[in-house]
Amino acid sequence: MEIRLNKFLAECGVASRRKSDEFILQGRVTVNGKTVKDKGLKVNLTKDVVTVDGEKIKPQKKVYFLLNKPKGFVTTTKDEKNRPTVTELIKTNAKIFPVGRLDVNTTGALILTNDGDFYDKLLHPRNNVVRKYTATLDKPLDPKDAEKLLKGVYLKGKKGKFLNLIFPSKKSRKIVEVHTNEGMYHFVKRMFETVGYRVKKLNRNSIGPFTVENIPVGTYRKLTPQEVDQIKN
Ligand code: URA
Question: Residues 199, 201, 205, CA angle at the centre, nearest 5°?
Answer without folding.
Answer: 110
